[in-house]
Sequence to fold (211 residues):
Amino acid sequence: MNGPVRVAALLSALLLAPATWARQAPEAAPLAPAAALPNARFAPGRYQVVAPQTKVHFHVKSLLGAFDGDLIDPTGAVTIDAAHPNNAAIDISFPVEKMSTGEPANDVMLKGDNLFDAAKFPFVRFLATDALIGSSEAMTITGELTMHGQTRPISITAHLTGIVPDAAGGKPSLHFSGETSVLRSDFEMGFGRPFVSNRVDLTIDASFHPD
Fold:
């Protein structure tokens, strides 16, 4: 092979070699998938109850119609643990003295010693230590209700009604609604039976803002 032919063959080999090596190189092993992060709906931390936006409405049937009223101006918070972000501890108290039916005479009767006895038992309290809140829009929250000095287990059918972003970029506010019912006799508040129903229906609207 003369000189020019050998040079041309060498150049061709050098130009074609990278493509050949690329075709023959072994494929890289696929990357392992990243570990899944917890699918938490709410950021962990303490959320203070927003008193002006939170109330429990009660409805009691009677032979003469019905009694309606509200527990208002609560204190307390929801605390979400970073280790268990779909669960929460809830501790909310309503002052009996702030309870209102819109009728002063009824308010005096309810707060008196035949029923709530506000002077002796000034608060209605709901406490839950491990409530499942992050699994879906609807949830069942179980805990303990203390009223008139008696504590009983209770289950609340609750719904997430809103997650409101914080304008400053912090944690959002949370809004819930809920329904449940209790028996007055379970809390030694049977005054007026059978003319007034033993069952009390409760409707809850609650808002919480991060500390």
